[in-house]
Amino acid sequence: MKITVVLGTMIHGGAHRVACIQANELAERGYEVTLLLVVGALQFPYIISEKVKVEYALPAENLELSNITSKVKRKLLAPFYLVSKLKKIKPDLVISHIQSTNREAILSCWFLNIPIIACEHTSFNMPYGLKGKFAYIDRRFIYKLANKITVLTTSDIDGFYGKYLKNTSVMKNPGTFESEILITQEQRRKVVLAVGDLNRIHVKGWDNLIEIFSQVSTQHPGWVLQLAGSGELGKSKLLELARNKGVENNVQFLGAVSDVKKLLQNSSVFILTSRNEGLPMALIEAMSQGCTCIAFDCKTGPSDIITNNIDGVLVDDQNVEQMSEKLNCLLSDENKRRVLSEKAVISSQQFSKNKIFDEWDSLINKVLNRQNNERKNQL
């Protein structure tokens, strides 16, 4: 069976990592998999199996995503090139990722009569401004043309998607790593770790994170805050904020990290301060490697992963004072960190690749069987 996984391009990001894991795992399970990028990538931050064929609808040259003209050109040309490429590949099924790419893929597959599963990676509350209006149109109308839409949490179905769409299913993100504790809390460095795109200051809550750490650092001078992720513009703004708060010597910017697993294994605490999330991959990964995790309980995501005070700590959404208080308690109590860490590893097993891709096998078969039955009825 031929499956084509469609992505806009390849950059560092949770959704892109999930798509790569999906392509690799489906190929391991015997599917003939093509990873199709709408715009070619200059580099691949994630490992792609030799069993996965990589194709581009548009070349990377002269289409830098940061250039406004290139963005417009991409939006105008992408659907035409995508249709052309899919005609050549002739997949039995397309699986697309991320809202803007989902739109292009759904319309292309509708035109070609190819079944498609479109994967959402954010909650409906995520986009802001004009982007949010376009996202609403896509999700409200374009998504109806897909055979199936997968969302990350039951809250998504209980809310917007359940109200407007009948073709939705919950599909959790798979964990990247095997769940294990190789380094105990006692052996770990005194590091509070956060991971994500530094340019997304508001969405990821980096402004609040600097404030929170400034409130606890004086009581815990041996601890440092590390931020792993790319984004030079965001880094410069956050560095200035750290200087203003007097913690610039205790805040470290690591840039994009190739060995995230090792980084997690050596960090004591993982913190998530996002204002919005889908189902945060970074949090799942942190729990699987035995980090003690603390997170704001934003509308979707963290509460689907953490059971409060059992395998991590949930804090009232954007309550900076409460987060500072809870983080201070964790840094002061090594035994509590150890207990939460051990439970986190066990809880993270619900996101194991075997479990999640057994569910994918089932969903793929259901979609194709229904498509085949509909075609037979039309004859």
Class from secondary-structure proportions:
alpha/beta
Oligomer: single chain
Q: Count of DSSP E strands?
A: 13
Q: Segments where pLDDT lies below 50 for 5+ residues?
A: none
Shape: globular
How large is the radius of gyration? Answer: 21 Å
Give the strand order, joined by hyphens, for the main sheet: 3-2-1-4-5-6-7
What's the SSE pattern?
EHEEHEHEHEHEEHHEHEHEHEEHHH
What integer is the average pLDDT? 91
- For this structure, the CATH topology of the largest domain is Rossmann fold
Helix content: 40-55%
Largest sheet: 7 strands, parallel
Q: How many structural units, i.e. domains?
A: 2
Describe this structure in words.
Helix content is 45%, strand content 18%. It is an alpha/beta fold and 379 residues long. The model has no long low-confidence stretch (mean pLDDT 91).
Provide the fold topology.
Blueprint: E1 2-7, H1 14-28, E2 32-39, E3 53-58, H2 68-89, E4 93-97, H3 99-112, E5 116-119, H4 129-140, E6 148-151, H5 154-164, E7 168-170, E8 189-195, H6 201-204, H7 206-217, E9 224-228, H8 232-245, E10 251-255, H9 260-265, E11 267-272, H10 281-288, E12 292-296, E13 313-315, H11 320-332, H12 334-347, H13 353-378
Helix pairs in contact: 2-3, 7-8, 7-11
